[in-house]
Specification:
Blueprint (H helix, E strand, L loop, with lengths): L4 E3 L10 H23 L9 H9 L7 H23 L16 H6 L2 H11 L6 E6 L5 E4 L5 E4 L6 H11 L5 E5 L3 H11 L4 E4 L11 E2 L9 H15 L10 H18 L5 H8 L5 H8 L3 H11 L3 H15 L5 H4 L10 E2 L2 H4 L5 E5 L7 H20 L10 E5 L11 H10 L2 E7 L2 H8 L1 H10 L2 E4 L6 H11 L1 E12 L2 E12 L3 H5 L5 E6 L5 E4 L9 H11 L1 H6 L1
Parallel strand pairs: 1-13, 4-11, 4-12, 5-9, 5-10, 6-9, 7-8, 10-11
Antiparallel strand pairs: 2-3, 2-16, 12-15, 13-14, 15-16
Amino acid sequence: MTPRDRHDTGSTSGRVPWPFWLLGGLGSLDVALHAGVAVDGWRTSPTWNPIPLALDVGEGRVAWPFSASLVLGAMALVALAVALLAACRPGRRGRHRAAPLLGKRRDVRSRGVRGARRTADRLGVEAPGLPVARAVNGGAIVYATWEEVQVDVWGPRRGKTTSRAIPTLLAAPGAAFATTNKRDVHDATRLSRERVGRVWSLDPERLIGGEPEFWWDPLSFVTSFERAKQLADALAGATRKPEARGDAFFDPSGAALVANLLRAAALGRRPITDVLLWVADPDDPAPVTLLRAHGQPLAAEDVDAEAHAPHDQRAGVYATAKRLLGWLADPAISEWVTPPSEERVRLDLRDFVRSSDTLYLHSTEHGAAAPLVTAITAALCETAEAAAKASSHGRLATPLVGVIDEAANVVRWPALPSLFSHYGSRGICLIAILQGWSQGCIVWGEQQMAKLWSAANVNVYGGGVEEERFLSQLEKLIGDYQRPSVSSSSHGGRRSTTSQTTRQPILDVADLRALPAEHLVVLPSGSPPILCRALSWWDGPHAKEVAKSIDKYAPENASAG
C-alpha cells in the first residue's frame, strides 16, 4: 500500500493562540457595555472601538452600566455551556494528537451508518451493519457492512471483549456464534440472544457449568469425502501443538486415514467414537467392509493399504490418526458428540444457519475441548456456505455473524486464512480476534497470517502489542504526513527564512506501542485509517439488557437460581 500523504494541522491542534483570546475578551466587553447602555437608556453611546473603550472604562472616563454586568454574565454562562457540550461530545473526549491526520469527516462518513445502510438496503437486511468503533473526528460510528469480514489484533486486557465481541454478537440480525475461553461473552449476551432464538452452549470443560442440554454429531457434516477431508484437516490443525513442526509424510497420511474412517462411519451410521476404536485396532475389518458395501472401493483400498503397511509406516500413520482423535477418549467431551442415553436434543447445523439461534463454543486456551470447538466452527461455516450457495444471489438472506475470539488459541483452523475473504460475499460475517501478530504466525505461518490480515475488509488494532515487526508494518499502512518546518539564517546583516516540508509517520512504532487504552486504529479497505474510540457495551443501546443478563447469569446468581 502506498502511504497516504497528509498535511500537518499543527502540533497545537485544538489550541487557540492568545491574541484571539484577548480580542474575544475585548469584543465581549464591548458588546456587553453597549447592550447595557441600550437597556439602561443612556442618551450617549460610547465608541465601538474595543481598545479605546477598554482604556476609557479602565480610567473612569466611561461608566460601566449595571445591565452590562448582567449581559456579560449571561454571555459567560452561554460560553461555558458551549464549552461543556464540546468537551462531552464523544468524538472530542480523549482526543489524540494524530486525530486530525487520521480519517477526515468525509472519510468517516463513507464508513458511517448511511454508507452501511445503503449496502444493507441493497441486501434486504434491516440493520445497517456491525458497529466497529466511534470515530474521534466527528463522533460517528464506523460500521462493517454485511459483505465484510474483520480481523482484530489487541493486546491482553485492552477491552476487546467488552468493546468488540459483545457488541458484535448483540448486533447480529439472525443466527450467531461465538468462541470464547471465558464466560463473560455468554453472561453478557445470553439474555438478549435468548429473546430472539434458542441458545446453545457447548461447554465440555464446564466453564459455564451445568449438564449438556444437546449433542452434535460431527458425522452429520460428513456427507462427502471432501467434507470428511475438511473435518480431518480441521482436527489436524487443532491437535497439533502450535510450535511443533509437522512431518511431511505422516501428517498428511494420518489426516487422509482419518478422513476415510470418518466417511466409513458416516456411511455406516456409526458413532464417531467407533473411528477412535478403528484407529486403536488397525486390524479391525469394519471400516474397509463399510466402504466397500457403500460403493467406495478406492477408499477401502487406501484404508486396507495403511492397515497392512510395513510396521514403521503403519505405526507412524496410526499414531498421527490417534492424535487427531484422542480428544474422543475423554468422556466429558465425547458425550457432546455421541447419541445420548437420555433424551437430549440434537443440534442440526443446517437448521441453525437459517435460524436466529445463538451457539456459544467454550474452550480454554489449548484446552481439551479445542479440537471439538475447531471442528464445529469449521463445520458451521462450511454448512453456512452451502446454504448460501443454495440461496438466491448466492448468499444468506439473513447474515450469519461469527465472533472467533482467541482465534489462534481456541480455533486453530488451518483453512481459515484461505476461506476468510470468501465468507463475506456469502453473508457469513466473521470477526477473528487475536492477541498478537506472532500468535497467528505460530499457528498458521507468517504468509498465511498475512493472508488472513489482507483478506479482511476491516482491520482493527486495539493497542497493547509489543511486536516491533508488526507495528512497523502497521506504521507503513497508516502512512505519512508532510510536516512543515521553517528555518532562518543571517548573511551580511540580512535575515532570511526558508520553509520546507519533511515526511513523518502519522503514528510511528513508539506511538502504536503506547496507544492510549481509549483509542484504537481502524483500517477499512478502500478508506483511510481512522482513529477511533472503543464502543463498549455500556455505551451502546443494549446496556441495560446486558447488565440484567450479567446479573442473571453471573456464577453466584446462576448457582443460586
